[in-house]
């Protein structure tokens, strides 16, 4: 192994590779084990860093460590701003405004009191760190929302609050620090106030100008398609750096505002940029968490006393709930949603990064307990991540605020065949939605009592009205092959390409009509086309859900139903899996098979199970 200057040190390239492997590996393992990814990343960083001593960011990466964290946080917040389209607010708008304008100042006050009387810090350290604690962390909220599959409104509340309050928390810390600086150095109060106001104004102007500049350049084709993402990255860094030159940490506000401007500009290439940014953000979040966890100093933690535990309890069980309940009082939000938001406040990357920075600066000013801010921040992040990571999903389920208990299926196309499949899935307790832009095509599904959506599944209206988090699988099965391909291609990144299916296209086997693998969805129902599937229905084929037992196995079912077309299987937990190409089908007792039967086999009666 190549080493750096210090004995046992990793060279920077190896160190960065290790960070990537630990971060992405933790996310993959969390996906496999269905655990909160943040928890595993935290553990991986601590084990590789202070426990085993393999990796020390300050030693192995050196002077690049702090700038890497700053730039990563800036890009993370910009990507968060890109998700804040005003159309997504809808009925959550009032709650978001209150959480920002009422919740942020109140949260600052209560957090300061928790630090002063819980952790026993000085008023100076408490005021600065209390401002930072406004943030709830988009880096933590985003993966938690993905795994918990919350209903749309509480998810929007938590997401908007996390992203908007992140730069506000950093700026609150700047304000408190400026006050401490004035008191300690006897500078003019007016000069410090003018510096703060100027910095905020410049941050807003730079953020808005950067956003509108990108929109103008992209809409008028001033930048070629292949250079749009690189140009965007450079613009983000330029706006962030320029704003920070005027007022430290104001760059967070500037890039967040820049992202919001771009998100609401209806750019034709917005989706491609957003998806690329999401992928980059996953890498950055993983890396930052590993870096910060590996940088943990057990010696610094040893300075903490039992009062640190009191502080964490006060923040999670009193400061956060009181802040949210006060901010959302007398709103139209149901009490269950208020309770969920009140007891969900995980902290993340920005808190640790900014807390460490201001802790060092307070120590330089002579505030001795400023050294406790970093360890307290880490303890709070670790506790909140573990608590909320393991409790959010069951708590939301208890309150009835998950999008769906069982992952559902969206069938695009209101045909005779999709209606029959939807009825079979509904009888098997699988949530199913039939959508079609033609109202007449949905008549049969509505008469059957199925849930329907009249409109284009790719429309903004669908995004607003359909609880997409409640569905896991999509089948594009309209009579228009080109539209099916468009639907499968567009929804693939959202649901995962492995979860988006498409019925066979007419003439798909010929070289003239075949499409590259990057377009369309996975094969569904074998090689059957729209016309073939509906012809089976006209010929009296029926859908059947059959349970397997130890006495009635897959071999028994296949022997009795040799012509049956197996479409899907439902596992013991009630989750559905479609059959495509070489997919493995579980044959364990308790599994249910979803199939189509010809009339002669259907007339033989129910299966033995």
Automatic annotation (TrEMBL):
Residues 26-396 form the Cation/H+ exchanger transmembrane domain. It is a multi-pass membrane protein. InterPro entries: Cation/H_exchanger_TM, Na+/solute_symporter_sf, NAD(P)-bd_dom_sf, RCK_N. Gene3D superfamilies: 1.20.1530.20, NAD(P)-binding Rossmann-like Domain. Its main location: membrane. SUPFAM superfamilies: NAD(P)-binding Rossmann-fold domains. It is found in: Cell membrane. Residues 409-500 form the RCK N-terminal domain. The keyword Cytoplasm does not apply. GO terms for cellular component: plasma membrane. Keywords: Antiport, Cell membrane, Ion transport, Membrane, Transmembrane, Transmembrane helix, Transport. The chain crosses the membrane at residues 12-31, 38-58, 64-87, 99-119, 125-145, 166-186, 192-217, 229-246, 282-302, 308-330, 339-359, 371-391. GO terms for molecular function: antiporter activity. One of its GO terms (biological process) is proton transmembrane transport. PANTHER family: NA(+)/H(+) ANTIPORTER 1, NA(+)_H(+) ANTIPORTER 2-RELATED. This is Sodium/proton antiporter, CPA1 family (TC 2.A.36).
């Amino acid at each position: 192994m190549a080493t750096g200057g210090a004995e046992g040190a990793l060279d920077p390239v190896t160190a960065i590779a290790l960070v990537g492997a630990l971060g992405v590996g933790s996310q993959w393992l969390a996906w496999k084990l269905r655990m909160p990814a943040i928890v595993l990343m935290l553990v991986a960083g601590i084990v590789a860093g202070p426990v085993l001593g393999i990796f020390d960011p300050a030693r192995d990466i050196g002077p690049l460590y702090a700038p890497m964290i700053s730039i990563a946080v800036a890009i993370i917040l910009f990507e968060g701003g890109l998700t804040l389209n005003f159309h997504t607010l809808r009925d959550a708008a009032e709650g978001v405004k209150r959480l920002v304008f009422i919740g942020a100042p109140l949260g600052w006050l209560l957090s300061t009191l928790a630090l002063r009387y819980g952790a026993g810090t000085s008023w100076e350290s408490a005021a600065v760190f209390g401002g930072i604690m406004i943030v709830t962390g988009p880096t933590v909220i985003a993966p938690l929302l993905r795994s918990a599959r919350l209903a749309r409104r509480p998810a929007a509340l938590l997401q908007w609050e996390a992203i908007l309050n992140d730069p506000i928390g950093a700026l609150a810390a700047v304000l408190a620090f400026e006050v401490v600086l004035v008191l300690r150095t006897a500078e003019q109060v007016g000069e410090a106030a003018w510096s703060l106001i100027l910095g905020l104004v410049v941050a807003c102007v730079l953020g808005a100008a950067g956003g509108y500049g990108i929109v103008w350049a992209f809409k008028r084709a001033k930048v070629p398609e292949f250079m749009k993402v690189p140009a965007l990255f450079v613009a983000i860094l330029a706006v962030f750096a320029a704003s920070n030159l005027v007022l430290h940490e104001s760059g967070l506000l500037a890039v967040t505002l820049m992202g919001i401007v771009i998100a609401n500009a209806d750019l034709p290439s917005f989706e491609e940029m957003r998806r690329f940014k999401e992928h980059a953000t996953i890498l950055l979040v993983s890396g930052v968490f590993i870096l910060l966890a590996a940088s943990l100093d057990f010696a610094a933690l040893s300075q903490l006393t039992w009062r640190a535990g009191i502080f964490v309890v006060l923040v999670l069980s009193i400061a956060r709930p009181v802040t949210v309940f006060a901010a959302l009082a007398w709103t139209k939000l149901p009490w269950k949603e208020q309770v969920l938001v009140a007891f969900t406040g995980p902290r993340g990357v920005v808190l640790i990064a900014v807390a460490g920075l201001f802790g060092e600066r307070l120590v330089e000013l002579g505030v001795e307990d400023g050294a406790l801010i970093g360890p307290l921040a880490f303890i709070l992040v670790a506790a909140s991540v573990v608590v909320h990571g393991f409790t959010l999903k069951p708590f939301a389920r208890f309150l009835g605020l998950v999008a769906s208990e069982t992952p559902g299926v969206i069938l695009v196309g209101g045909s005779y065949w999709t209606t029959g499949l939807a009825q079979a899935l509904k009888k098997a307790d699988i949530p199913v939605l039939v959508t079609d832009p033609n109202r007449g095509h949905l008549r049969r599904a509505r008469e059957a009592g199925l849930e329907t959506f009249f409109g284009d599944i790719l429309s903004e209206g669908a995004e607003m009205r359909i609880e997409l988090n409640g569905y896991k699988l999509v089948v594009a099965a309209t009579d228009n092959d080109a539209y099916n391909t468009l639907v499968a291609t567009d929804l693939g990144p959202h649901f995962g390409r492995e979860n988006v299916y498409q019925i066979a296209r007419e003439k798909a086997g010929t070289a003239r009509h075949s499409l590259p693998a990057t377009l369309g969805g996975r094969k569904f129902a074998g090689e059957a086309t729209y016309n073939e599937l509906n012809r089976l229905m006209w010929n009296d084929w029926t859908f059947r859900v059959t349970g397997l037992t130890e006495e009635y196995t897959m071999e028994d079912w296949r022997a009795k139903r040799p012509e049956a077309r197996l479409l899907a299987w439902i596992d013991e937990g009630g989750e559905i899996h479609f059959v495509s190409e070489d997919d493995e089908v579980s044959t364990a007792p308790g599994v249910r098979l979803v199939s189509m039967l010809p009339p002669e086999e259907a007339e033989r009666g129910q299966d033995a199970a």
